[in-house]
Design a protein that fits this description.
By secondary structure, the protein is mainly α. About 55% of the residues lie in helices and about 10% in strands.
Length: about 150
C-alpha cells in the first residue's frame, strides 16, 4: 500500500482527486508494509515452525482500482477517481521527482505484471500468521489522510 498508493499516488489524490497509476484494469490485493512487518516479526519470534514454508501475503480483498478509488472517497469524504496512465509517462514523472532509475525499472515491471493480472491473488496467510485481518484500504487511507488532503 505504501509504495503505489502512498508514495506514488498521494500527490494525484491531494491535487486532482485522482489515483493516477499505470495499473490498467488490473485486479490487485495490496497489503500494508506494517502488516508485512508484523508477519515477519511473528515468524522471527518463533522461526522453527516456519522453516521451509512460503507465505503469500495479501490484503483483505482483491479488486480493481475503481474499487480502491471508492475506498479513498469513503475515507476522505470526497470523490476520488482512478485514472490509468501509460507506464512510460508515469515513469517520466518519477524521473522528474528524482526517483532512481533502478527503482523506476522495478516499479514499471510491477505495473506490467499488474496489467497482466499477476497480482490478482488473495490468501489468508497473513491472518493465519498474525491472528488478525490485514489493514483494509479504508483504514490505510484514514491513517494517512493528511498526506492525501490539500
Amino acid at each position: 500500500m505504501e509504495g503505489f498508493f502512498l508514495f506514488f499516488a498521494a500527490a494525484g489524490v491531494r491535487e486532482n482527486d485522482e489515483l493516477i497509476l499505470p495499473l490498467g484494469n488490473s485486479i490487485t490485493s495490496p497489503i500494508s508494509s506494517i502488516d508485512i512487518a508484523d508477519a515477519i516479526s511473528t515468524i522471527l519470534a518463533e522461526p522453527t515452525p516456519h522453516i521451509g514454508r512460503i507465505y503469500n501475503l495479501t490484503g483483505q480483498v482483491t479488486a480493481d482500482l475503481n474499487h480502491y478509488a471508492k475506498n479513498f472517497s469513503d475515507a476522505l469524504g470526497r470523490t476520488i477517481r482512478y485514472r490509468d496512465v501509460p507506464i512510460a509517462a508515469w515513469a517520466d514523472k518519477l524521473r522528474e521527482r528524482g526517483v532512481p532509475a533502478h527503482v523506476i525499472s522495478h516499479l514499471a515491471t510491477m505495473a506490467k505484471l499488474h496489467q497482466q493480472g499477476r497480482y490478482n491473488r488473495l490468501t489468508d496467510n497473513f491472518a493465519e500468521l498474525v491472528g488478525r485481518e490485514p489493514t483494509s484500504m479504508h483504514q490505510f487511507v484514514k491513517l494517512h489522510a493528511k498526506e492525501f488532503s490539500r
